[in-house]
Specification:
Layout: H1 9-19, E1 23-30, E2 33-40, E3 43-51, H2 54-67, E4 74-78, E5 81-87, H3 94-97, H4 99-102, H5 108-127, E6 130-131, E7 140-143, E8 146-149, E9 156-157, H6 176-184, H7 193-209, H8 227-235, H9 248-259, H10 268-276
Antiparallel strand pairs: 1-2, 2-3, 3-5, 4-5, 6-9, 7-8
The structure holds adenosine-5'-diphosphate and magnesium ion (MG).
Length: 280
């Protein structure tokens, strides 16, 4: 567990203004980006700190939160980085909701409801003209007031490109055409709603099976092969889907999305309807 960086003390002042006297907990720290949960008598917030190359990414994410009506954000700079404070979203992630399903302990009704809620949240974001860009099992939080999305670092409004370079987010949930455009080398690459739908289906698949959708082993790719090697194989659609089928009725719909050409993929709203029709 690290120390909260003293140079970013202004973030604590902002958090304390919202919550009262704080208790701090480090949630994650990777690639220059750290998340802390800060809680007090009046509530809890998330503090995200981006240092070095992550500073620009964090500033961009704060600007996205500022533009989304359901979110609020306070943002500031410190020596070498950017911090922002946003309300803590209370509830399990999609990955958490599916845990009993993965263990074969039931919970399918709750999981289906969660899957529909996640599709709905993505559909609403898309209908408002946004692309998320980094949908993952941990990036949907199932709150009392519905599903809220997290981690908007690679989000953009359709028609704008707020970065000069995009090298991809979670490789295992990267749509083949997006992998191909990153490989192709011409930047900036845009994230897209159709690639979001691929990642959404892949997220649900992962939540059901506990493993990423693609079976690298069968494609002769080592599990810890470099990302570039996986990206090349994904771009060429050279990696088959995993054959683990614990929930065929749901997975058949997801499989259809994961194998479809980008233009043939359903929208997030259409995927929601497909998932609603699944029997628990
Ligand atoms: N506002 C929030 N409410 C609840 N949990 C959060 C919030 N922000 C971040 N988290 C938690 O911290 C984790 C990391 O945050 P994220 O924004 O995904 O950062 P990273 O860029 O490091 O992936 C999330 O998966 C989630 O568990
Ligand atoms: Mg994340």
């Amino acid at each position: 567990m690290g120390e909260f960086p003293p140079e970013a003390a202004a973030a604590l002042t902002a958090a304390e203004a919202a919550c009262g006297p704080l208790e701090l907990k480090e949630i994650s720290d990777r690639r220059g980006s750290a998340v802390w949960k800060a809680g007090g008598p009046r509530g809890a917030v998330s503090i995200k700190l981006g240092a070095g190359e992550a500073a620009e990414v964090t500033a961009r994410e704060a600007s996205v939160l500022d533009q989304l009506p359901e979110y609020t954000v306070t943002v500031g700079r410190f020596d070498g980085g950017v911090w922002y404070v946003t309300p803590w979203l209370a509830g399990p992630s999609t990955w958490d909701v599916f845990r009993p399903v993965r263990k074969g302990e039931g919970g399918r009704n709750e999981a289906l409801e969660a899957a529909v809620g996640l599709c709905h949240a993505v559909a609403e974001l898309h209908e408002a003209g946004w692309v998320h860009g980094d949908l993952q099992p941990q990036h949907g939080i199932h709150t009392e007031n519905g599903v809220r999305l997290l981690d908007f670092a690679w989000s953009r409004q359709v028609g704008t490109t707020p970065w000069r370079r995009f090298d991809g987010t979670m490789i295992h949930l990267t749509a083949p055409e997006l992998a191909a455009r990153i490989l192709n080398g011409s930047q900036p690459v845009d994230t897209t709603q159709t690639a979001d739908v691929y990642a959404l289906a892949g997220t649900l698949w992962t939540c059901v099976t506990g493993t990423w959708p693609l079976d690298y082993e069968t494609a002769g790719i080592d599990a810890d092969a470099p990302v570039e090697e996986k990206r090349r194989a994904i771009a060429h659609r050279a990696v088959p889907l995993s054959t683990a089928m614990p929930w065929p009725a749901l997975q058949a719909r997801l499989r259809h999305v994961l194998l479809a050409a980008p233009d043939d993929r359903p929208t997030a709203a259409e995927l929601k309807t497909l998932v609603e029709a699944v029997d628990a």
